Amino acid sequence: MSAVCLRRAGASILRREPPFASTSCWIANTRLMSKYSQPTHPKNEKIPYNYVSIVDNETGRIKPGPPVSLVELLRSVDLKTTIVQLVTSKPAPLVKLLDKKALAIAKKDYKERQKARPRPVEQKEIQMTWGVGVSDMEHKLKKAREELARGNRVDVVIAPKAKQPRPDVAEMNKRIQAVVDAMEDAAVEWKPRTLERGVAIIRFQQLKTSAAPIAKHDKPLDESSDSSEAVPEPSSPNLRRAAAI
Prior knowledge:
Number of strands: 8
CATH topology of the largest domain: Translation Initiation Factor IF3
CATH superfamily of the largest domain: Translation initiation factor 3 (IF-3), C-terminal domain
Number of helices: 7
Largest sheet: 4 strands, mixed
Structural class: alpha/beta
Shape: rod-shaped
């Protein structure tokens, strides 16, 4: 289709002009209007065919006999309780007679099944510094609780702030434990906490999602001790830079 025909077709749809004098542009206009104005599965009087064949709802096969008049079919059914819906137009127009009440029940059941499906667990991260104030920490832990309530796991990352002295290891452990204590009614640590290069990571999951009791990870940490598992870097570039200071 030429660019000229496309422009004319678009303008014709907006202005509802009669078909173009040019045959090729008239065909282009008709196709474009059909594409954007016709629903995929039109219903009742919106079905654009005079004769249709009926598909049996139970067998999925076409009912025997010649195609029937759409007008007569619509007259013969109670449109307050039944929908005549086009299933396909190729190789011939086929329709189904659908019960409105059954459709509403099926739609409701589908929505309930979608809600009942387990949503994938996401990994979230809450960041704070060693010098975080009480109110700021409460605000950040509130966000952590909200993510846990959604079924997500949350890493609470505590890192040094640039150009500020780090607390000693004993003080770090004290503040780590303060975070854990503040979350004990809503979360458990699902992996051992880590402390490396001044960055602590506490890994929480929702308390009620634990199928079995999880061992407490409240052993004080020592930055100089070796760990058998690799400690992941904080995801934030700012925290990575702070840890390197």
